[in-house]
Design a protein that fits this description.
Layout lengths: L1 E12 L2 H10 L3 E16 L4 H4 L3 E7 L2 E7 L8 E2 L2 E11 L21 H7 L1 E18 L5 E15 L2 E14 L2 H16 L6 E4 L4 H8 L16 H17 L3 H20 L5 H15 L7 H11 L3 H15 L9
Antiparallel strand pairs: 1-6, 1-9, 1-10, 2-3, 2-7, 3-4, 4-6, 5-6, 7-8, 8-9
Helix pairs in contact: 4-10, 6-7, 7-8, 8-10
Amino acid sequence: MGRETEFKFMVEAGSPGDVLDWAAKAGLMKGRPQQRHLDNYYYDTPDFRLRQAGIALRTRCSDGKWELTVKTRAGASDGKTGGVHVHPEYNAAVNGKPEKPDLSLFPAEIFQDLPRSEIQDNLREFMSQRCLRTVFIIAGTTPVHEDFVIEASFDEVVYQGKHGGIPGKELELELKEGTVNALLYVSAILLAAEKASEMPLKLRIGSVSKMQRAAIYAGIIPAGEPEQADLSSDRGRCRALSGLERICFLEEDAIRAAQAFKSLEDLFRKVRANPLSSPFQEALERLARDYEEKKLPDLPLPQRKEVLKQLLTDPDLVLARLRLDAAYSLSSPSSGRN
């Protein structure tokens, strides 16, 4: 078993070449980039017993090689918080795409509270996605003399939606060696280059996993409900923002999506009425001002979504959110790889 620790970003502008150029100029890129064609297939029972237990079951074909993967929850945080994702991960090589993945390839304790035989009999493929992945290694030493190795993946994804393919671009930074401080260090350099307009890349927090995003697009699960977070702290406000943006962008029902925007405006009012002294507070207040200046409440819903996506690429806001999420979900030394 391994533990996958990564930062996820949605890419609103830019290409793999922009990230590669940045890494080369920063002196962080090691070796040559590679491109991989990934086909991902997800499995569960008709009543989604695995998803309810916090288990993701996937078969992946990468340039002709097949692998079966199980990801489980990482604890009370459900494995992810904002753009920080942490999951225990189990992998097994398989010969071709299985009709029903063999759960016996994985440790029995994963399914100890579940009727494994019943689940095995009822497994079915319920969604898929295609991805062109550009992957390369980032390595170096932080200012506090910590060596690190990070795998960077720029994914150009096509999700299987209810009405056809839905494209998206994502950037993942997965920790291979070092601690989460290295992920924060590299992210800070990347976002500083974006802020200085040294490259055309525009990033926002990727608070939804590929599997969850695929399930929402396929109409299998709802976009969710607003997070009932404690707004007396930066962490609570950050969670509330993540929950609302997920609904704003992924909810197909226009009424519920519009309600999420109203809830976002209500969050801005509460934040201004009860300010906290922090970098996140400053970034959130700037987001609220920009939201009003762009007159988002007056825009048609599709245009409102696109403008909000651009506002959420503010590098200071992205970095402040990453720091809060990392402090919350990765405070244990065992959260990183050594």
